[in-house]
Amino acid sequence: MPKYNELKKVRRLSDRSETNSIVDLVKDNETGILYVRKTIFGVDQPVYQGIFIRELQALQRLNSCENIVKIIGYSNMIMTKSRDKVGCIFLEYVSGDTLSNIDVVRLTSKQKFKIVKQLLSSIEMAHNEGIIHRDVNPNNIMIDDNEDVKVIDFGICKIKQMINSATVFQMRTSLYSAPEVHLHSQNATEQSDLYSIGAVMYYLFTGEQPPIATIFQETIDNASGFDIELRPIIRKLVASNPIERYKNISELRGDLTSVFKRFLDVHFTAVITMDHEKFTKLKNLNLIPKNSTIKDLDLIVSRNYMELYIGQLDNIYKFLGTNYCLECFYGEDTNVFLVAEIKKVVPVEREFIKRKFCEISARLNLPDPKTIHRLSRNDNLEIKNIVDEFCEHYRSKDNVNIEYKKNYGAWRDLLTLTKKSIEDNVQRFLYDSYDIKGNICSFKLHKGVFLGDTVFNKETRLIYERKNKKNNKTKLIYVGNYYDDSLVDEHVILKTRFLQKPLSLPSKGSICLDYGEEIINIDRQLDALDNMERENYSCQYNLKEIISGISPPTIDPLYGKIKFFNERLDSYQKAAVEKALRSESLTIIQGPPGTGKTNVVIEIIRQILKINSNYLGLPEKKILLVSQSHPAVDKMLDDLIQQSQHRPNLIRVGRDEKLNDEIREEFGLSYVKDNWIKNVRSKCNKLAQNYCEELRVTYTEFESYYREYEKKFVSNIEPESINENEILEFVSKTNTPKKEKIRKILEIQKQWVDGLQQCEEADLYLIKNTTIIAGTCTGFISNRVLRDTSFDYVIVDEAAKATYPELAVSFSKAEKIILVGDHKQLPPVLDLDIIEENEDKLDKKDFVEGLFEKLYNNFPEENRHRLSIQYRMHPVIGSLISRVFYENEIQNGTPEKERITGIPGYDNISIEWITTSKISEFKRKEEQIGDKEKATYKNSSEISIIKSKLYELDSLLTRIIKVGVITAYRGQKSAIKEMIKQQKFKYIQVEVDTVDAFQGGQKEIIIYSTVRSSKSNRIGFLKSEARLNVSLSRAQSLLIIVGDLNFLNNPKIIGNKFPEIIKYIKETKGCKITEVGENL
């Protein structure tokens, strides 16, 4: 946030009050935008810190309510002159005046009832969030220039879930405060706010200040200015006894329905019919009184529709009310809406739905279906046409859905086809019979059925598919893990080992490899796409419009300067952190190789944690940290742990076998849970032993008693096996009232402790109290608790490698999203076979540009950033990468002297190309492995050169050096790995892998095997700029390329980057080309 004096004060709006605060109108000199700054003094004192935190928390929770002033930002500050510690809250500037400054006598009845209606909406929203305003009065009700209500000043509000004795003191009360609040502010309840609403309504309609509570009802009886229907309502609102007031605003709305209909323009009458089944459902859902009759329906249901919003989708018309929604069909022949379904609606959900529905000024009429033809008024056709037009406009508004489907619609088709392909192509094994002995199930496979090339191990799960004839859905039943196989009398005997005996296994049928995890993963992504399409996400901004390119993402205009933890961050890295923290929705950070994106992510996390520590009274900002792969997540956590001064409050979710050992054993959810349970058990056992001492029994005696006592509640235990004498003996020792109470406590505690391991509430407790949750893009949601958990931030590392559906899984969970990656490195992995097999349904062009690249190319500068100084590579290597892949935009941050290998002959060399062009064509050419459809390649000449080069380097070294050997082809990788296994090196440690596995890694020396060499102009994977970028940018000090230089130096090959690379090597000092001949 800006410093106190960085915003120009325009004028004082409110002098210091009992909450020790002042309110100023201020102006941002750069933008000219006006804000309201509320300054609370003395926040180093618990009382005023509590006031500051309460107002902040209330405003943050209510920021989506249209009739409550919106918070822009907040900060703890030190005033420059006085050095006072203050808390500042920055609010939107509402152009208008408070109700207290408006001549209410001049307001029309319609204007007055509009104020009441909007006031009720705002206070109801607050109550549903557990917030009691405690100070509803005309001074805190703004009327803006559009005559809309904005409730302000939540400084002395009461938040139910927030316990803070600092603000339990008597606030100054007014004539608008309920009598119980006069006794003490902490007595305030929802009924206290209702009293204040009644007092405001009295002032609004009479122009007089309200009297004291003891004579309020009597004054109302004698006052003028009320409609006769309004008088008893206000009278009930201001009853001295809270019990005699309305229970809630919903009940109050019901009594105001007819008054609102009279004074707020009602242009139409909507006719709805409901059969007896739906009427009964309303009663069963407790949405109408149980004693209601069908004749009461019109009056009762109309109370739910004091304001009416109607939406339409697939010819279903949804009538949104206060507490429930009626989903109706429209009957063209009868011109009547018929209720098809009833759904309960909670207030927060209602506020969200309202934005998409058409507000109609209409009264509802629910007549007896038999008398419809006698109705004097039925405006259903007009209402239908208005709603249809609105919904059509909304759905086509700015072409959001059209643009969204154009950009991302194909992903649903691809996922659906992928799911079908998995189900159709899984390898199935027919069996003639099976036999179970112990926990081993032996399947006798059908004659001629073999296991084929499938690799089986003890982790391989097998299942039986059972189809439900009613809904045609398939249920996957686990039959065990692979145990053994053998051939007996021409039949394969496949053995599985199980923990629980498989149920309903037919005598003969088929089993298959378990594909359930793949299907679940796809279903999660399909659900995520549904959430995006329905705009069902935590982000308060329209994320769908942002990613469709319709609306730009926005930034916090008042986010101030940052004090960085890592002072070594360069200016580009600092700017990236600032942009991420200023963003109000989505930020893209591009991190080219070696530019320190991990340091940026860690700095962002630490800044968020700093906000948490600065505002301890506010709910912690929770962070979801995800990446496309488990190793990437663990690498990020390793770095975070190393750079953190204290142990991070984090949990790593994911299957234990896929996690880094150190991370798993300290932060894995199951390990954290086990340690927590162990700690809880230890404390409970200590407490139990103290109780046992009071009972004058040993803890061992209690445990022995409890074992027998517990058997009584187990269904399959024979009564004879229970030692009743032991139970009776223990009970007799503890039969006094006090001792019996202690015994019951011990029993309950023991039962609770024993059930902790299976208790899902334990997961809920741990996750709720953890700041950082880390996992993979789609894997984190496998935890049931996390499916319903929302986060303040989602940070996605390696985001350019993730597909849009993978990213969408986490998108719905967060208020703010930060994507970190590099679209010029490895792209998302796609199943090209499925795309090519379904050319009539899928267009490959729809999947070429990933979401990260699309957003980076279209976002404004304020919401995207490229890191532009690399620290990994020798400047000669770094400049190559910058020129070929990044338009010469990447600078070098590490001097040459820090990237010298010290290997004789390489003192001034950092790039070497060993070319095979002089070797005979027969020897240097590539070799195809496998059929054309799934072909891979290897190159024996290059393998020999790599072997010789490794021995040469090893002989010249005097220290350990890590060498990476990279290739684009699986066939070459396997051949090089096999060769390395047979060698012994003294100083070099060699790692061999494909390009895809090396992203994010680095070695002091990299050897890159190009493999391809032939008479054709085909270079396959080598045309991929992203893969080539990754391959060449892994080297810190020395990059050695092995391949046919003349073959690859062919500019006629479309997309070939090698001519540019070769030109650089030939022209640049620090590079050399080495030719090898027939003898290698």
TrEMBL record:
Protein name stated in the entry: Type III restriction enzyme, res subunit
Keywords linked to the UniProt accession: ATP-binding, Helicase, Hydrolase, Nucleotide-binding
Any one GO MF annotation of this record: ATP binding
Pfam families in the cross-refs: AAA_11, AAA_12, Pkinase
A GO cellular component entry from the record: chromosome
Signal sequence residues: none
PROSITE patterns documented for this protein: PROTEIN_KINASE_DOM
Species name: Peptoanaerobacter stomatis
InterPro entries attached to this UniProt entry: DNA2/NAM7-like (IPR045055), DNA2/NAM7-like_C (IPR041679), DNA2/NAM7_AAA_11 (IPR041677), Kinase-like_dom_sf (IPR011009), P-loop_NTPase (IPR027417), Prot_kinase_dom (IPR000719), SF1_C_Upf1 (IPR047187)
Residue ranges constituting the Protein kinase domain according to the UniProt record: 1-264
Residue runs in coiled coils: none
Superkingdom to which the source organism belongs: Bacteria
